[in-house]
Amino acid sequence: MVPEKGPIVELLRSQFKSLDFLGSSLTPKEWHTPASLPGWVVFDVYAHIIGTESMLEGYELPYTKVDVESLSHVHNEIGAFNETWIESLSHLAPAALLDRFRRVTASRLRTLEAMTQKEFEAETETPTGPAPYWRFMQIRVFDCWMHEQDIREGLGRPGHESGPCARASVDEVVRALGYIIGKKAAAEDGSSVTIELTGPVKRTIHVVVHGRAKVVDELSEPATATIAMSSSLFMRLAGGRASNLSNRLGDIDFSGDLALAERVVKNLAFTI
Question: From CA 36, how far away is CA 38, in angstroms rounded?
Fold first, then answer.
């Protein structure tokens, strides 16, 4: 079923508002506090989001030379592209950067509102390959929400871990669980995994492996392995943000095939 444009645009509007509200509350020192992403401070995360939304609005990539070879956190072309936008905005004061964020996100929302449903369904290039434009916008909700959590984790200011944007972001990970469990965790044919998210987003997710692994509504018998954790930790793991996983295993409950359960947890990361 093809989703309607309106609800996706409203999710983006809500996510932009949350980032705006958070940015408005930051002190000058907090803007330069390390986020939970290697090599980036809070300012850089906002600059990255501005760069992506600017690109989607058709703004040209600024001509800024960045010595990415000296940046240990840059591992690919996408990473180098991100650094170009960050460097191009680095001269701005935090207030000016936040104003830039407001202007580009307002422009994005106007563009999306003006699109027809047919345009929203047209195929385009996305971070996961060719797909309808609406899929790209779903990914943008996920990406912006994850980056808000990167900022909040760095600052020690948790928030916005429930609600529509958080649920939509969990949905993005659920879409990838067949690949994660079947391919990355190498679950055997005939096995099954249940993941219990205990909150703030509560969800029970079942994955079965019959040739290919896929998410199903229910299981006909108890799962081979069951994993229970908070949705907050689940999303940090899925985003590759929990580098100290060995210190977090105590926050996860495992039952059934423990080897399979641990393989799933250790292979949850699927973002670039």
Answer: 7
d(CA 231, CA 30): 26
Percent helix, percent strand, percent coil in the chain, to nearest 5: 55, 15, 30
CATH number of the domain where residue 108 is located: 1.20.120.450
The whole-model pTM stands at 0.92
**Res 127 pLDDT > 90:** no
Whose tokens are 């998410």? That residue is 215
* Gap between the Cα atoms of 186 and 180, Å rounded: 8
pLDDT digits (tens, 9 = 90+) for 228-257: 999 999 999 999 887 666 677 789 999 999
Domain that holds residue 40: 5-160
Residues 21 and 133 in one domain: yes
| Residues pairing with 131 in the sheet | 124
Mean pLDDT in residue range 120-149: 96
pLDDT at 231: 98
Question: Do 241 and 208 form a contact (C-beta atoms < 8 A)?
Answer: no
Structure tokens at 270: 């699927």
Domain count of the fold of the chain: 2
CB-based burial label for 153 (10 Å; 0-12, 13-18, 19+): middle
